[in-house]
Amino acid sequence: MEILISSLFVQGIAASVHQVKSFLNHTAYLSCYFPNSQKTDIKDLRIFWQKDDEVVHEVYYGQEKHDNLSPKYINRTKMDMDKWTLQLLNAEIVDEGQYKCIIQQTEKGSPRVIHTSECLLNVIANYSQPEIAQLHGGELKPNEYLNLSCSSSGGYPKPKQMTWLISHENKTRRSMHHTDISQDAVTKLYNVTSKLSITVPANTLTNISCLLHLGEQLGSLVSVPLGIGESPFAHSNFCMGRSRAHCSRADHRSQHSQGSE
């Protein structure tokens, strides 16, 4: 879990905003970051977790209380009393947002706020490995156009861009094309597609990959390379496979067959 802290002031009490990441459908851990320097017994405190105007969780003098909880959090939260940490079960995309922990202590019959902190929850869903597909059938011939698509699905947050990597003769160039990004209205997960039109090379093998950029903190995902082109050993032996190794094996078989004749 990665935490970034920035300071603010809430009702005269120093508070902190902690950025917390959780994977989709996993448990999110939202700490109160309460130092408890006075060693106060939890039975002498009231602890509230709120998101906007909704009550997420409440601990009332040592007992978890569910009467005032928002319906969406019922049976989804529990408090680790020893670590002053709220556990939000089965984190969903809609759970993203800012959560506030408020701790009160009763003095002379009146509750007084002695600590506040805030957590900004970000939910992450892993994208599928990008996959390249051919958009038309039929025989491929040198110097004709080949239309390809690359797709990745089921991820969150929104990705930055999809880039094509085209490698031949020990050189690689990047090609930026329009990236179509759509979001599912129910799950809030993103699907990504990019298309490439490329001339089929003659007398050379070309590897094509696509790279999905997820952002600085999440990195990138790359597809399995697609190898296209004619074998340099036999002009009649056109190759299209998942990698240069695939085409090289085809070339080796072709040479072996010719040598046996």
UniProtKB/TrEMBL annotation:
InterPro entries assigned to the protein according to its UniProt record, in alphabetical order: CD80_C2-set, Ig-like_dom, Ig-like_dom_sf, Ig-like_fold, T-cell_Activation_Regulation
Primary location: membrane
UniProtKB keywords: Cell membrane, Disulfide bond, Glycoprotein, Immunoglobulin domain, Membrane, Receptor, Signal, Transmembrane, Transmembrane helix
UniProt subcellular location: Cell membrane
UniProt domain Ig-like: residue ranges: 30-117, 130-210
SUPFAM superfamilies given in the database record: Immunoglobulin
Protein origin, superkingdom: Eukaryota
Matches recorded under Pfam families: C2-set_2
GO terms for cellular component: external side of plasma membrane
Biological-process GO terms, alphabetical: cell surface receptor signaling pathway; cellular response to lipopolysaccharide; immune response; negative regulation of T cell proliferation; positive regulation of T cell proliferation; T cell costimulation
Topology in the lipid bilayer: Single-pass type I membrane protein
Protein name per its UniProtKB record: CD86 molecule
